[in-house]
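Weekly puzzle thread! Below is a chain. First person to post its structure in token form gets bragging rights.
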Amino acid sequence: MRSNLFPVAKESFKYIGCSLGAFVLFGLLDFDILQFLSFVAIGFFIFVYRNPERVVQNFEPSSLVSPVDGIIVSVQEINEAEYAYKVEIESSYLNVAFLRVPLNASLKSLDIKRGARLSKFDALADKINENVTLIFEDENANKVKIKHMLKQSIDGITIGVAEGQNLLQSSRYGLMIHGITTLYLPQNFRFNASVGNEILAAESLLGYFSSTKKAKK
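Winning reply:
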């Protein structure tokens, strides 16, 4: 996942291949309308699964960048043991689907729950929609919890990393098309964005951790 150099995600090959096969078949059968729709499908899948390179910014070591493309739709204070803020980012089919590591850290926890792909307005969406929860921790014991949840998507969430891996900021770790990402941030984080901001994975700075206390061994 992190070294994927294809112009589109590998997950798209089956969809593009089927659409291309249909395009050729309908052309041979002179089904012009169906051939045109197959051509549109090829373009759609190439666009949705596109894999552009991102300019890696030279932020400070305590920085946190966005893990997804999308729009910040809410920022809330919460009262949890390890987290004080919750940030919700909504991604659409127009956004690049690749997920990127928000900080130089190790992946402490990974929980994947396969499920439905209901609309976010459905009362059951939060309970049964497919979702993935990851916890990243840097060398100064700063923790970030990220939950990705699908909306009405054409594909499931793909995660290409495993617990215990050390990951570099901005590297690819997964893929999610049309979903909601929720970040849980600790008290010592200083948020540097606002509701309504359109952000890009790896390029948009979300803020900094103010503490540089080393993790206890």
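Puzzle host: Confirmed. Bonus trivia for everyone else. Residues 10-48 form one domain.
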